[in-house]
Structure formats: structure tokens, C-alpha cells
């Protein structure tokens, strides 16, 4: 960010070194240059200010003397991280408490915020779900597709269809049919900034304060936070080895249900066809919508895929949600909805109000990969690699824990659930801390529950798609050591 030009003092004819020093000091403390960013060179700043270079040099010398910047011959001055962090701590400690007036939406978020923590660095193995290995990303294919999209000269630079690039939606229509048996019209597809925005649009259009929504328990907490922020109330429904226990929906009145039937998150169950029809019948009876999150359906290892809810007869109440976050990268923020035809204009309007449309270059690049077959080829490759990672994890857990570990959800997806039946639930926090001390990140099932806890032992959601085999082996060894210390 360019520096703010200091104003001359009244009566002064030009800007002096003191004014430049004060302006830069204030900008440093306001983190204009970040915590350790570079300032402009003395030559560049002098030209910008219209002063002699020696004037800027004097200002920089004073900043360095007071510890605000670090200088090195031949390099641009850099902000001193320590002084910025120290000042932020001091200001925060003396900042007066001020009650901020928020909307009801804002108050609900303040009372029940989703929790994001920066991924820990320097771990031997981080079994956090949702991370992908950088080595899996198709760098050359994506670079080629993006370069071609950038080189294509449009007739004009203008806002596009809020539902997404026609080229991408057409490519997605074919992909969904051949990979998931989803039949839909191109106009039913809405491209969104990741599945999270898809959930947000559904929440805004389908829920009001006081409404009820069904959530799998345990289940995906970001979906629950999104729906609850509208003021709607959660109806947690337990899951078992076959996913949502649909028989418990009898008598439940709700506006929508969020489900992961192809690979329940986190327990990994695959909902059988009978339950799927039962769920659809409930939705029709209650005039409710079912949001089918097919978040990692590309990864199936030893089971044949069951047709998604959207592909079944009587699925007019289903909103299908897909993403490339588990195949390409969560950093791309590309997802898609398949909505009932009657809702398409509403979803288009909501998308337009939110952000006009998803960035077009990335859409065009993904479309090119789908059209050329490069995307399908990539999915097959990463499916094989993740199958190898999963087998490495299962093997390492069995070797280290034997019959003391019980695995669920290994038929599909990018994670498994490991139950350590010899460890009572009250030792969960101690195990997490002991593992972290050894450089291993682990994450409990209990954090994903809404209703009362029904398990008595420690259960971990163990993602493996962000790790290499050697890290998995080492991580399981250290986890076993941490568990042994608790025995």
C-alpha cells in the first residue's frame, strides 16, 4: 500500500523529515505495511513526496533508531515485527470497552461464532480433515487452462451471468451425468464460491428466524452455523453406520434437512436406498427441502456408488451441492448447486446480490479441464494416491494399536473415524495435548456433535489427504506413544 502523504505544517513551505517520520511511524503502527513488510526505497519515496532523498534518509534513520524499522545496505527498509506486536498488545490492553450495536444476525454470530484457527505449523503429521497435499495439484494442467483463459480476449470486460459461465455449467452438466447419474438442465446449475456460499444462499432463501432445520448429529458444523445464523433452530438427528436415522424424522416439522448421504461426515456411513426414499418422502410431506452435500463423492474405494438423492424418483425437493475443494484445491473456492427449476431465478438473484458472480478466469479454466478430460484424469490419479494413503493409515493404526482401535467410514472419502475403545472420553483432551506435544495434530468426533454425547470413548476424525505415506507412518507411531503415556 502506498504511504499516505503527510501534510505540511501551517506556515511551512515544504514537507520535512519530521513529518515524513511521523506519517510513516503512524502507518507502521496501523499495520499498513503488515507486521514485517517492506517500506518504499528512499529514492522512490523522495520522488513520491517531492523532497530530496536526504530528507527521507533522515526520517528512515530516526525510525531505525527508535526500533520501528530494520535497515540493511542495498535493501529496502523493513518493519520491525517486535515493535508492532508490542504496540498492538499495549493498545489492546488500554482500549476502552465499547458495546457495538449489531443486527440480529450479527448478534447470533457473536453468540455462536464458527471457530477458525490457523493451521499449526511444524507438525510431524497433521490429521486435519479437508487439507490436500500440494503434490497432488495438477500444476501444469491448471496453468495451461488458466493461461488459455487469460489469453482469450472477450468482446468486453463486463459482469457475467450470476449463475456462472455458460461454458462451465455446460461442462458440469455432462460431468454430473457421467460421474454421478445426476440429470439436470444447464439452467439449474448455479456456480458458487465454494460449497459454503451455496449453503449460505440456501439459508437466506429458505429459512426465517424461528424455523427449524434438520442436522446430522454429529455433522458438519459450518453448515449448522450457517443455518443457525438466520435465527432458525437446529433439530439434531442421530446418525449410525447407515447415515441419518431417517425413522426419527417422524413427527419432525422443519423447512430443510442437511445431509451427506454418499459419505456421512464425519462417521462415514453410506445411506441405503430405503432410507433415501424415506427422507424424500418426509421432505414431500413437510414441503421441505433436502440439501444433499456430495462433498467427496469422487473418492470411493471398495463400494459401488449409490445414486444420489437428486437422481432418484421424486427428488423435486432436493438441492444438490458439489465442490472441487476435495479434488483440486479448497483455495480455488469453486462449487456448484443444482437447484429445482422453480428456484433458479431466486438463486440467481441472491448470487447477484452477494457478489455478482464467481471469478470468470477460474471458471473458464475448470471448464477447459472438464472438456478436455484433464479433470477426469486428475481425479483418477488422486483417487489412487488417496487410496494408498488410506491403506497406509489403516495399516499403521492396526500395527500400533491392534484390536484397541476400531475404524469406521473407510469405504469412501478422505478421512476415517478411529475409535480408541480403551480410552474413556474424559481422556480426550489429554490425548490431544499429548499428541500435539509430539508434533501430531488430531481432532475429536465430539467437537462435531450438537445433541448430547452418546459415546463413552475417544473418537478421532483422521484426514489423510494432506499427508504423504511417510508422514502418516510417523504420525501414527507418535500417536501411539502419546496414547501409551495415558494408560
How would you concisely characterize the structure shown here?
The protein is of the alpha/beta class.
Notable traits:
3-stranded antiparallel beta sheet, 8-stranded mixed beta sheet, 15 strands, 14% strand, 15 helices, 487 residues, alpha/beta
Characterization of the model:
The chain has 487 residues and is an alpha/beta fold. Helix content is 41%, strand content 14%. It is built from 15 helices and 15 strands. It has helices at 17-29, 42-49, 53-65, 81-94, 104-111, 139-151, 166-180, 194-206, 221-228, 273-286, 344-355, 360-372, 374-401, 428-437, 469-486, and strands at residues 69-70, 78-79, 125-126, 189-192, 212-217, 233-240, 243-244, 256-259, 289-293, 318-323, 335-338, 405-408, 415-424, 440-441, 457-463. The strands form 4 sheets. It has an 8-stranded mixed sheet with strand order 4-11-10-9-8-5-6-7, with helices on both faces. A 3-stranded antiparallel sheet has the order 12-13-15, covered by helices on one side. It has a two-stranded antiparallel sheet with strand order 1-2. Helix 7 packs across helix 12 (360-372) and helix 13 (374-401) packs parallel to helix 15. It is globular. The N and C termini lie far apart (55 Å).
Amino acid at each position: 500500500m502506498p504511504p499516505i502523504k503527510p501534510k505540511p505544517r501551517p506556515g511551512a513551505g515544504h514537507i520535512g523529515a519530521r513529518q515524513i517520520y511521523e506519517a510513516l511511524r503512524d502507518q507502521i503502527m496501523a499495520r499498513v505495511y503488515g507486521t514485517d513488510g517492506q517500506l518504499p526505497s528512499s529514492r522512490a519515496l523522495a520522488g513520491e513526496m517531492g523532497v530530496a532523498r536526504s530528507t527521507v534518509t533522515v526520517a528512515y534513520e530516526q525510525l531505525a533508531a527508535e526500533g520501528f524499522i530494520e535497515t540493511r545496505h542495498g535493501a529496502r527498509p523493513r518493519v520491525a515485527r517486535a515493535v508492532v506486536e508490542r504496540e498492538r498488545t499495549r493498545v489492546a490492553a488500554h482500549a476502552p470497552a465499547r458495546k457495538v450495536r449489531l443486527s440480529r444476525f450479527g448478534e447470533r454470530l457473536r453468540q455462536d461464532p464458527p471457530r477458525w484457527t490457523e493451521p499449526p505449523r511444524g507438525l510431524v503429521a497433521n490429521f486435519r480433515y479437508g487439507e490436500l497435499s500440494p503434490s497432488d495439484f495438477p500444476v501444469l494442467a491448471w496453468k495451461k487452462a488458466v493461461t488459455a483463459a487469460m489469453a482469450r480476449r472477450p468482446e468486453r470486460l463486463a459482469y457475467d451471468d450470476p449463475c456462472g459461465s455458460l461454458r462451465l455449467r455446460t461442462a458440469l452438466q455432462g460431468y454430473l451425468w457421467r460421474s454421478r447419474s445426476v440429470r439436470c438442465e444447464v439452467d439449474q446449475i448455479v456456480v458458487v464460491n465454494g460449497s459454503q456460499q451455496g449453503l449460505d444462499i440456501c439459508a437466506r432463501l429458505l429459512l426465517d428466524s424461528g424455523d427449524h432445520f434438520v442436522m446430522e448429529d454429529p455433522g458438519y458444523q459450518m453448515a449448522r452455523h450457517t443455518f443457525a445464523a438466520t435465527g432458525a433452530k437446529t433439530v439434531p438427528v442421530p446418525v449410525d453406520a447407515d447415515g441419518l436415522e431417517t425413522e426419527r424424522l417422524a413427527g419432525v416439522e422443519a423447512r430443510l434437512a442437511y445431509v451427506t448421504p454418499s459419505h456421512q461426515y464425519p462417521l462415514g456411513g453410506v445411506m441405503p436406498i430405503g432410507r433415501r426414499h424415506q427422507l424424500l418422502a418426509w421432505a414431500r410431506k413437510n414441503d421441505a427441502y433436502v440439501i444433499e452435500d456430495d462433498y467427496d463423492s469422487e473418492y470411493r474405494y471398495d463400494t459401488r456408488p449409490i445414486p444420489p438423492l437428486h437422481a432418484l424418483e421424486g427428488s423435486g425437493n432436493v438441492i444438490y451441492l458439489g465442490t472441487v475443494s476435495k479434488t483440486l484445491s479448497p483455495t480455488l473456492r469453486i462449487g456448484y448447486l443444482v437447484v429445482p427449476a422453480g428456484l433458479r431465478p431466486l438463486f440467481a438473484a441472491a448470487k447477484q446480490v452477494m457478489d455478482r458472480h464467481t471469478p470468470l478466469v477460474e471458471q473458464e479454466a475448470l471448464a477447459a479441464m472438464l472438456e478436455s478430460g484433464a479433470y477426469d484424469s486428475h481425479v483418477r490419479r488422486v483417487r489412487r494416491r488417496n487410496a494408498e494413503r488410506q491403506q497406509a493409515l489403516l495399516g499403521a493404526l492396526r500395527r500400533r494399536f491392534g484390536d484397541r482401535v476400531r475404524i469406521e467410514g473407510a469405504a469412501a472419502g478422505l478421512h476415517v473415524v478411529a475409535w480408541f475403545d480403551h480410552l474413556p472420553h474424559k481422556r480426550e483432551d489429554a490425548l490431544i495435548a499429548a499428541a500435539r506435544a509430539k508434533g501430531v495434530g488430531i481432532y475429536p468426533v465430539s467437537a462435531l456433535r450438537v445433541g448430547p454425547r452418546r459415546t463413552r470413548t475417544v473418537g478421532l476424525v483422521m484426514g489423510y489427504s494432506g499427508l504423504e505415506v511417510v508422514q502418516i507412518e510417523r504420525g501414527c507411531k507418535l500417536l501411539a506413544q502419546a496414547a501409551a503415556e495415558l494408560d
